[in-house]
Amino acid sequence: MFQKILIANRGEIALRVLRACKELGIQTVVVHSTADADAMHVRLADESVCIGPPPSRDSYLNIHQIVAACEITGADAVHPGYGFLSENAKFADILAAHNITFIGPSGDHIRIMGDKIEAKRTAKRLGIPVVPGSDGAVTEEKEAKRIAAEIGYPVIIKASAGGGGRGMKVARSEVDLEVALQTARSEAGAAFGDDAVYIEKYLQKPRHIEVQVFGDGAGHGVHFGERDCSLQRRHQKVWEEAPSPALNAEERAYIGGVCARAIADLGYSGAGTIEFLYENGEFYFIEMNTRLQVEHPVTEAITGIDLVHEQIRVASGAGLSVRQEDIRFLGHAIECRINAEDPRTFTPSPGTITHFHTPGGLGIRVDSGVYSGYKIPPYYDSLIGKLIVHGRNRVECMMRLRRALDEFVVDGIKTTLPLFRDLVGNADIANGDYDIHWLEKYLAKED
Fold first, then answer.
1. For residue 46, what are the domain limits?
2. Residue 99: inside a domain, yes or no?
């Protein structure tokens, strides 16, 4: 097992990893920008190193400073959390060159899955169902029209190196296609420095289903069930739950088994999430995230397994602690992402939290690194906490969530708590009857 882990992140995920390390008896080092000097994870870590000014490029994305912090403190491993450098293959390679363990997959696997076109090819080779579309990047308008005609309109054009909805355009007819192709390329080039795009069939009312997987790097893989992440705004997840209200036991076992076998065949090491669009009983691969997900606590709630412990264990060479037959799914869990944003316009709302009170009771978990008097800096993601609720079934979980939201108090800034109080009382949400377009349509009607 590792002696000392450096946590290369901030906020709630840095605190989440720190807690796991303490439970395992591992010393912790955190890095931080000058803006995060008073952050909770900095206060609780065994050691902390300031690595630069507030802008991420000068601190949390500064690979040389982070490696230097490892060498200064004697850290023998790095946990990247999510975001920042968590899916940076170069970072993983550099750590390996310095004999420091990256708690995550190999740089090669990060590269494969970070390229959307190569990821789709790999998924298809591993037996994972994929969305009909182009086999690779589309460079000519004539070729784009041919592919779109073959798979049928509407189609969606996506950036090969993309994410978060950037470089993504829908074309509902041949007339739309030319403009959509040019716009997607332009956005992709500006956002990612790579204007390669590909085409897929655009599904009308799909759900977003993702499967949590783990591999030991030695040909063994397991899945920890699925999560439903269909409530989204601008392709950003807002509410996640496990298991999905849309799947039956047969579908759940099928897609979990497909993903576990694929991870084993790939020789993958660590945590990953294979994401799908699901419509009319069919699954269509969209991407794989080679890291821990923001929404991992709902999986922990229904399995009782600490996924960060598992990450550390696998990275240390100890292998997986469970076999597939050991994993049981109990009850239902929902996570609400609490952001420092206006609940209607979603405009960021940095500032000082004057009062912070979290709910409690059976089945309630709050992952947050903020506190009363904490000043939220304007430089980073607006996520300030996650409310995770677990019940014996979905009905109990929803009732418990309603109560927990009523108890949650954050004063001094605007947050998305009012939005969740509205959603938990909505009939469609109560019935689990929603898709990836539902939330934006709901917000448009509210306006």
1. 4-86
2. no
